[in-house]
Design a protein that fits this description.
The strands form 3 sheets. The chain has a 3-stranded mixed β-sheet. The protein has a two-stranded parallel ribbon with strand order 3-6. A two-stranded antiparallel ribbon has the order 4-5. Helix 6 runs antiparallel to helix 7. The protein is of the alpha/beta class. The protein contains 7 helices and 7 strands; from the N terminus they run H-E-E-E-E-E-E-H-H-H-H-H-H-E.
């Protein structure tokens, strides 16, 4: 028979284990071989942590935030231009561009006990390789310009391509500050033409995340052998 003190300690242990299971965040580091460009490296998990502030954020499969581990701290960066009043969201599992709705939805329900209602789930956005990949692939309901804007559309398309090329050039020169300074403008240029989902949006988010990890995140070089 357990006494009152033992029952109290046991209940606290169970509570802490449940909190850890539901509210822990993965800790990662960027790894690359010696001499390899950091942009070719991969972010891999190395542990987990309880972070009281981050656990207050709700989930979305297309989150508005990117998490970067810096030493023993975690920093959150906007993953794109965020509208006034728009919620800041984290991603508890895999984002929509990596995992199909049919796989991630039941996983979220099983582990976190909620049915995700983000726009990526409501509209059942497909994964990256099945997304529209050019301007010609954009569905009519995702076009963000009117017939009156047609004379200017070509110029806006060229601006997107120009900014994307400039970002890539800066990354190749290891000028990650310069590249990151253009992502807001690049995102805004895409928004002038189309609404997500589109490969351009995903490429921008992934590329920006890589720059953030290279600039600020935990990194390690691995021996080639």
């Amino acid at each position: 028979q357990l006494g009152d003190a033992e029952l109290l300690v046991g209940s606290l242990m169970i509570h802490l284990m449940e909190v850890a299971t539901m509210n822990s965040h993965e800790i990662g580091q960027m790894e690359a071989e010696r001499g390899q460009n950091w942009l070719l490296g991969q972010t891999v998990p190395v542990g987990c942590a309880l972070e009281p502030t981050l656990v207050l954020l709700n989930h979305a499969c297309d989150p508005t935030m990117i998490r970067v581990n810096i030493g023993v701290s975690t920093a959150g960066f906007a993953s794109r231009n965020i509208r006034k009043g728009e919620e800041i969201t984290d991603c508890y599992s895999w984002p929509f561009d990596i995992t199909k709705y049919e796989d991630r939805s039941p996983d979220l329900l099983k582990k976190y006990k909620f049915q995700c209602g983000c726009i990526a789930c409501k509209e059942k956005w497909v994964t990256f390789h099945d997304l529209p990949r050019s301007f010609n692939d954009v569905p009519d309901d995702k076009i963000n310009f009117s017939p009156e804007d047609l004379p200017h559309v070509q110029g806006k398309m060229m601006n997107v391509q120009k900014l994307g090329s400039k970002i890539n050039q800066l990354q190749q020169k290891d000028d990650f500050d310069g590249a990151m300074s253009l992502y807001g403008e690049f995102n805004a240029a895409i928004q002038q033409l189309m609404a997500p989902p589109h490969q351009f949006y995903v490429i921008a988010r992934r590329s920006y995340a890589s720059c953030l990890w290279v600039k600020y995140g935990n990194k390690i070089r691995r021996d080639n052998n």
